[in-house]
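Explain the record.
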Amino acid sequence: MRISKSNVSLIINKFSLFCLLCLFCSSTSAHKFYVSLTEMNYNQKTKSLEVSIKLFIDDIEDVLELENESKLFVCTEKETPEVNTLLQEYTKKHFQLLTENTDLNFEFVGKSCDQDYIYLFAEYKDFNPEQKYTLKNTLLTDDFHEQHNKVNYLVNGVVKSFSFTKDKTMQAF
């Protein structure tokens, strides 16, 4: 089934709205809603896979501070200089694209902060969308057992969506 780019945008917007509604509804309950949203888009011009990972700032900050035993002030004016390196190392450890059990290297492009969210950007160069891959996504699942990591993979106008949890960390595509 082929989906037009406008339909892809609509699907992504509806999914994002759903996540926000779930977040809003969960804020009134005793349990916090743990979710990340990743967009993986194949860029035909550059032959690369562009990755954008959306996380709650406080969640990734808590994890990094536990691992490093220091206050990091992620996405604030007091942010410590090592934050970008820690984010890159954490992402490379917990978000892996594999082919025949070989971890592909990505370039960490950077981050962007927006109120409660942090966006992490990465790029896999020389990506071949015809090849078989396995995605391992364990972002935040070691520390937050309720964590759900949603991934949308867009190539040639077709979207494939995946869901990862503590118990389901790998998916082939």
Remarks:
- Residues 25-31 have pLDDT under 50 and may be disordered.
- Residues 5-172 form one domain.
- The chain has one domain: 5-172.
